[in-house]
Amino acid sequence: MITVQSLRHAFMIGKKGKEKKVEVLKGIDFNVQQGEIVSIVGKSGSGKSTLLQVIAGFLKPNNGSIQITDIETAHFTEKQSAAFRLQHFGFIFQNFQLLPGQNVAENIELPLKLKGISPTIRQKKVQDMLKRVGLTEVADHYPNELSGGQQQRVSIARAMITDPPIVLADEPTGSLDMQTEQEILQLMQQLNKESNVTFVIITHDEEVASIANRILRMSDGLLMEEVQHAI
Ligand code: ADP
Ligand code: MG
Questions:
Q1: Which of 40, 51, 142, 188 is least enclosed by beta carbons within 10 angstroms?
Q2: How far apart are CA 60 and CA 62, in angstroms?
Q3: What is the total count of domains within the chain?
Q4: Which of 22, 94, 216 gets mutated to test ligand 1 (max ligand atoms within 8 A of its CB)?
Q5: Atom 15 in ligand 1: which residue has the minimum CA distance?
Q6: What is the pLDDT along the chain (231 residues), one digit of tens a residue?
Q7: Which CATH number does the domain housing residue 178 bear?
């Protein structure tokens, strides 16, 4: 589903003429199978969000290969990346990133509109998804009328409404209290079981990481598979 090889990314920082190169990804190798929940764990500043942005095509790598469903995406233009994202990825962010002027149903519907799906099919899909994530009652509420947990449910629904093969989640529970965190993690596990969607969860929180089938640890610009100890 995802195969990444020798992936490198550096940022140029500082004033013009005095730029310094900061290497963040120093040769990343990993793969993810369809239907897995994989977490990428590591300290703040270790390059996790950078890796996610490179996989999604928001940032271009300096080197290396990214294959998503056997398609090489590392050299896509911005336009190709945007089209590819719409077909292959859903996104969940720490701060939800909902549109404040749109209600719950409209926020969830948005990716279907972008894909050009007809209004009748959109309606049906949104109603089904509202049920799956437990938001039917608040369908016409606006994001600022919801709790953090409810807002994250909306963004999970929006990420999954187009049935993408892969959902990328960057610190999905970072803004939530512990109980809500558990509810959101359970929801992601439930959706993964129901639809075989692949989840890549980025987190600095070991407990969040532990819900995954596999844990990859980011350190010194490299990604290592965590050895699973039988208890
Ligand atoms: P994490 O998500 O693991 O906390 P990030 O990927 O956000 O880490 O950041 C990794 C490193 O890259 C940090 O040292 C950060 O300061 C640097 N960095 C991130 N984005 C930029 C940018 N746009 N320009 C320059 N440096 C950046
Ligand atoms: Mg981050």
A1: 142
A2: 7
A3: 1
A4: 22
A5: 45
A6: 999 999 999 999 998 888 999 999 999 999 999 999 999 999 999 999 999 999 999 999 999 999 999 999 999 999 999 999 999 999 999 999 999 999 999 999 999 999 999 999 999 999 999 999 999 999 999 999 999 999 999 999 999 999 999 999 999 999 999 999 999 999 999 999 999 999 999 999 999 999 999 999 999 999 999 877 655
A7: 3.40.50.300
Strands 198-203 and 20-32: unpaired
Contact 40, 223 (CB under 8 A): yes
Please answer whether residues 36 and 188 qualify as being in contact, where contact means their C-beta atoms are separated by less than 8 angstroms: no
SS3 state at 36: coil
Helices 104-114, 119-132: inter-axial angle, 10-degree rounding = 130
Range of the domain at 18: 2-228
Q: Assess whether the C-beta atom of 114 lies below 6 angstroms from ligand 1.
A: no
Location of structure tokens 């692949």: 198
- Phi and psi at 65, nearest 5°, equal -125, 140
Residue 50 alpha carbon, nearest atom of ligand 1: 6
Pick from 168, 131, 176: nearest CA to 151: 176
Tally: H helices and E strands in the chain: 7, 10
**Is the CA virtual torsion 16, 222, 64, 32 positive or negative?**
negative
**Sign of torsion over alpha carbons 135, 138, 140, 141:** negative
> DSSP character for 145?
G
- Residue 73: helix, strand or coil by DSSP? coil
